[in-house]
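Q: A reviewer asked whether we had any structural model of the full assembly, not just the individual parts. We don't, so I'm hoping you can provide one. Inputs are below.
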Amino acid sequence: MRKDLILHLSALSVLLLLELLGIFSDYHQGNFARILVLAAYGVGYNILFGYTGLLSLGHALFFSAGLYASGLSIYHLDYDIGQSIIFAIGISAFISSLIGFLALRTIGVSFMIVTLMFSQIAYLSILYFGSITRGDEGFVIQQSSRFFFSLDLSNPTIRYYSALLIFSLCIFINLWIAKSSFGRVLVAIRENSDRALMLGYNVQSYKLLSIIISGTISGFAGACYGILFGYVGASFATVSYSIFPLLWVLIGGAGTVLGPLVGAIFMFYLIDYASDITDAYMIIVGVSLLTVTLFARRGLLGELRYRFFKWIP
Amino acid sequence: MKKILKANISRRKLMKGIASVGSIVAMPGFVSYSQAANSSPIKIGFQVHRTGIGAAYGRWYDRTTQAAVKIINDSGGINGRPLEIIAEDDGTDPKRGAEALEKFANQHDCDVAFGTLFSHVVIGSAPRAGELKLPYFVVSEGHHVASGMLNRYTLQPGITDVKSQVQAMAPFVKDNLGKKVTMVYPDFAFGHDHRDYFSAAFESQGGQIIAKVPIPPTESSFSKYFPKIPRDTEVLYHVMVGPAVLTFVKELGEFYGSKGPKLFGFIDSVEAVDLSTPGLEFLDGSYFWEGNPRYAQANQTDHDKFYRNAVGVDSNGASVSDPKDVSTYAHMFGCWETLHIIKKGMEESGYSGIKDRAKLIEAVESMTSMPLSQAHPQGAKIFNGKTHQTFGHQYITKMTNGKLVLAHTTSIEDTFYPDEVDYTKQSF
Amino acid sequence: MDLGPYLLFASLEGLVHAAVLSLIALGLSLVFGVMRIVNVAHGEFFMLGAILTWWVSNFVMGNPALGFLLALLIVPLVVGIIAMFSDLLILRHLKYDPEVTIIATIGILYIIQQFALMTFGPDARPVEQPFNIRLDLFWFGFSAYKFFVIFSAIILLFCVWLVMAKTKFGLILRATQLDSEIAQAFGIPISTVYSLVFGVGAAIAAVGAVLIVPIQQAHYLMGGEPLLLAFIVVIIGGLGSLKGTVVAAMLIGISDGIISVFFSPNLAKILATLLVVVVLLIRPNGLFRTIRT
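A: Here is a predicted structure for the entire assembly that you could use as a starting point for your response.
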């Protein structure tokens, strides 16, 4: 079997066994369920940023599009879980196509700002239509609505396995893309888009497709987050939730499949342990970020790939 | 490694429970813990806003909680067991709030969680509390608990909610100030609650809301909104929150000078603001809703005196160590009272450990009247076990010579509204 | 209030806003233009300026004007030095790689913000205005200090323009902005220039903070919103164009005030943001482009 496939299957198996063998305490099991869904969001972000080289500052738009699409459909329209997820995927795909089409008229720094602006509009719209979305307070998806084929998704064990499944799905999509010719063109565009253009590739189409895939995966992660954790709120559409995936990806390793997971785990436990030591834990986080940028600027996994294991996708 | 780290931390844990018998013996006026069957501490997870937009309130919630815990422990703790607070910062963020509850339940084996103020954090955390079967006592003022949105594990027995506060104001405003009201409020859920509940109550009394002026909660300059207030406004109803409240009130003063409509504001607009700040002179003669009157009144009760002394607040509602450091007096009493309610609930249910959480909730649900006492210095309360929400007196004060003087106290019945949920019918 | 005076009032308020915004954005634009990096911590330097102003004015007894003047002299200097240090210690070693720099500046943001929280505290604290005169402009009252803010900003912008256009230092900056490699070939010490620019950029934002803090309060989270607006201003105005930055700041500051006259705040913000998007889609390099992104 290919080395990379073995690597990723092993990683997933480790996560599976930690739970199956009961090595995970309740506390870490709960944390990892959260981390895995958020890492799936990071995987979506990574496709656009790590592989295609486009830095978006507005991915919270896609995450919350999926979150609200599924949440609102359950809350107001009584959709069941399966229907709401499909609905959310559809909405995310539509929105990413629209935003991608518009935003790709700009490049570089303007692209960053335009994506930021779009996500601001989304956030403000959530507040504006507060009578439907319940604005900044958000709303609860009751436990009774969170059943998938008689599986109670609020049960910690079921939730963990669901999160693992969701993450695995996104990982395999990412792996498949990374190894495909489509993925290679994305990397080529990242490295030198003018040259890719000269080689005859329709760079804009590839970029658009990348945005659509990235946005849809992010939206899928958002929908799953709302369903698994029972809360939909406007705070997920704020700038912070656009910065988080950027942080996870950069710390874990941009352009690596497992990078977002590594980054998400790192950030989560860094904040967790730092807040045990001091109230000023954000300083510790800040210092860690500086340390990573100074000494491991390709990200943890990225450095590993660069120095030792060049085959990590 | 974690244990070593914890031994050095005294910041994160607000009050280290007095666990060993030996150290207690030295303290005066205590009940001997050695008589208790179980002397391990009762752990309460304190979900506090240490960072983020709620940090200014969180700081005073912290102080009040520390004071209440000390009082409780000095008089023997709960069922002979000392009370230990485990505090986690939620960053005033719903996701972090839910994660904090996770820590309380799964990492620290807390018996209950308590203390959240901002509504969106409560709503974001409550589902997790329900799943973890962790009793979650919030001190939020939000109507979310009583609305039925949350679950049987979430309760708000120590502070009244916005709906009851606002609707109790309507009769006073109409009878004493005027019939035509313009409302100025922040354009988010808290402000919308004010807008909706006050309009309904005021209009049902025969009054008229002639204009509603929403202001973005992140706004830092307010003058440009004031021209929207119609000229024939008799009463300007204002409530503002956030770091810019002082600017709001100052610019209101700049805009109107000494002319202008009568003012009725919620103390939120000047919560933690020193009323002697230049620019606030125009507030003289205006009225405020206060959850708990900041200035000690002529009829100050011994309980209020005791409470102020314990928390470290003077008769002007400011810190005894810095008269310019004004407390969030209208809200923080909720922490004090809630901790005392938790104590009472645990004692009445014979709470011995985590397996008794449901019994604790049932004991609290069966509470009704909470008289004015050391445990309830803000005033008497009536708790509605079905909706998990408490109701109490609301105070209206008038700014007179730079201080807020009590002008009216509503009855508790004035603040009632029909039940919207019955949590007692839900299973655990 | 009738529509005419209301618009005038909103415009004046908007001008105050625009004045401070132009200073913050100018600092960002300088850093952007010369160093080609995105400084996410720029808003925190602004916040530092406000907090330090409070310290200074609290320290100085007597006439608030004294404290204010002292702050105006000292605070930008201190903030500029702090910024220079963060460049020397951190950013320089990252070789100004755009993506890594963003992460590093996010780290700096966290550190500065938390430091402010630890020392200054979570409360918003007021600073007394140096003078308290209310001008009666027939239809409405207006604070004389606000006019002073607008006036001061104009003077400072003029000074910056003077330095950029007429002095050797300004020439060096413009050269570095145009093409840093060639500039280096001409013997310009790029790394020193970069540190200086980073410091000056932060210092200019700090001046904006000193001016605005007697109107607003100093609060440890006050850097977020100005950062967002400053980014918008810089992009719309066009990277590297100081004129563009000022024009865009005026546009955004004043239109924000005027739009809120007609629409509810949330809708007004949505429309304003949409406007920004439209401008960017039509002119991706901003209104006054001098550098292609």
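A: Points you may want to mention in the reply: Residues 1-36 of chain B have pLDDT under 50 and may be disordered. Residues 284 and 400 of chain B are 6 Å apart (CA to CA).
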